[in-house]
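Form 7-S
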Amino acid sequence: MIKKLVALALSLAFCVGCLAGCSCSSAATQAENGADASISVAAGEQGSDESASAKATDASANSREVTEFEEPVAVADGEDFTIEVIGTTKDRNGFLGYALSFTNKGSEVISVIPKDGIATVNGARAFASLYNEIEPDETVEDVLVLSDSEGVGFSELESVSGTLQVYVLSQSDPVAEYDYSL
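Output:
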């Protein structure tokens, strides 16, 4: 529970910092090499390269321009949920990140967050921001937002790695963790 609260606090601090006036560059270019991205997955359940047929229903995510990969990259393809990286996009502050698709096939509300609010981007430690609640039988798109230690977004994503944790909201510990490397 403490880890989840710390990750949520980091995400909120990041958002508050952006609202308070950090320099957000909207001139960041989208990563063209993302279309050929590869991923290695290390977790209790191995991902696959097969594409899920569900598309996002989240209206706010649909308003973003997403540079989609040729094929979505599966991070998790479990009995109760799937997580796919579908492309690169920018959040409302112009920060470059990854568009993710989450499908909850279970019977309880789940949440997916970056472990400790941290990722490695282009070889350096970075903040990773993502928080969502996914109802049973729902597919949602969201953005994994990445920024450096100053709260400034990246202009390109050459290599990104980290761990995503899946929580059932009625439990305090994650039910699964999935390492990703893009």
